[in-house]
Amino acid sequence: MIKSSLLRSSTFRLALLYMALSGGSVIFLLGFIYWATAGYADRQTDATIEAEIRGLAEQYQRRGLAGLTSVIAERVAQDPGGASVYLLSGNDLTPLVGNLDRWPDAPAAQDGWVRFRLRDWGQDKSEAHEARARIFRLRGSLHLLVGRDVRDLEATRELIINALVWGLVITAALALGGGAMMSAGVRRRIEAINQTSREIMEGDLSRRVPSDGSADDFDQLAANLNRMLARIEHLMESVRQVSDNIAHDLRTPLTRLRTKLELVRSSADRPEKIQEAVDQAVEDAEELLATFNALLRIARIEATGSRSHFRALDLARLLRDVAEFYEPLASDKQQHLAVQVADELSLEGDRDLLFQALANLVDNAVKYTPEGGSILLSGYSDSAGSEITIADSGPGIPAELRDKVLQRFFRLDSSRSTPGSGLGLSLVQAVARLHGAAISLADNAPGLRVRIRFAALEKSAHRPYSADL
Question: Is the pLDDT of residue 459 over 50?
Fold first, then answer.
């Protein structure tokens, strides 16, 4: 008995549809064969009977009843076991001459054609088979039947019908068997996906959908699902790491805030101490708010991926605006902040997000570059896209840590004494991803070189650099 799960399988239902189409094709093919063979044989039989009738009619016209009787008797005598059937009867249907011993009981059609069974008639009295004949009435109330034994045609028809039945049975059996085999194979592949999904839902995010290396549709589906699962695992690991980092990095400012509030409570008789403690507590609270605002902004950028605020903008103008904004800070540290950018650098993007990302990079450069150092903002475009670079002459970042600094809350040991939350480069990376850009960190010898490469959205010619500031 076929399992209900197999009957519910879409593959098995598809196999049943294929069986129906195949069965219909078999019926059509065998029906055509039947029409082309049995039908042709019927027409040939009728043509033979008509020819014999014309011959007998000529003899009847030339020689009369005696000649007709003589010809029928002569034909029966020459071929007693042949396929021809003759019978000449009187008005009461009493046989006069022929190879039938009585007139058939089958009714004749309007055109005189009749089909009847030959049983206990003729030479072979042991079997019944079909005959086809035509009946005429002659002068003198005589009845003439001329026909043929069509046992061979009947056998051919029976053979074709049997072939039709067996063809349908075999087609149904093969379709059911093939459908069951196909469904079993497909169900195994789907069950592997379901099993992997169940294990992942139970908490094992490292599980992946197996593939058989056939590169078929299921393998492509497995590959896409595995890439999706790898991305989900990475995001979950990022969430776990962010949670750990939040707990670690925010514990210190919260502890400081608590200590200062306790100091306020214990300094009720010293107003100057209260004011100082309150100011420091406000600074710590603002640092916490800035951290959470940065986290929310990164999460919003990564979650929505919205490009509704994308507009055509001049990236060269944007770089100059960022440099102008940080020029006073750089001047305070006697740093040389310069811009080298093509006269025209077009891009489709969100200007506010790009400004904040570039500002974070320049802010880091100004913060970590020593006094008298240099910072260069450059940009150019070619047929492959646009690229901007922020290079400084600061301490740089070790090669083994350049990927980690893009993670949230990650800070170098040398920078933990400076204000910050370790989210600046994470926001830069989120903005770069939103714009389909790639960010890379390299050694500037000395210092750090940050490159952001934007894919080409529209063709722009390469132009020579112009210097600003």
Answer: no
Q: What does the pLDDT look like over 183-228, one tens digit per residue?
A: 777 778 888 888 888 888 887 888 888 887 777 777 888 888 888 8
Q: Do domains 4-156 and 306-468 have the same CATH topology?
A: no
Give yes or no for a contact between 38 and 156, defined as CB atoms under 8 angstroms apart.
Answer: yes
Which positions ≥6 away from 168 have C-beta within 8 Å? 23, 26, 27
The DSSP bridge partners found for residue 451 are 389, 440
**CATH code of the domain occupying 306-468:** 3.30.565.10
pLDDT digits (tens, 9 = 90+) for 114-161: 888 876 444 445 567 788 898 888 877 788 999 888 887 777 778 878
Q: Please identify, in words, the CATH class of the domain defined by 4-156.
A: alpha beta
- Residue ranges of the domains in the chain? 4-156, 250-302, 306-468
Is pTM beyond 0.85? Reply is: no
Q: Calculate mean pLDDT across residues 91-114.
A: 85
* Ramachandran sector of residue 409 (left: φ over 0; alpha: ψ -120 to 50; beta: rest): left
**pLDDT for residue 6 is more than 70:** no
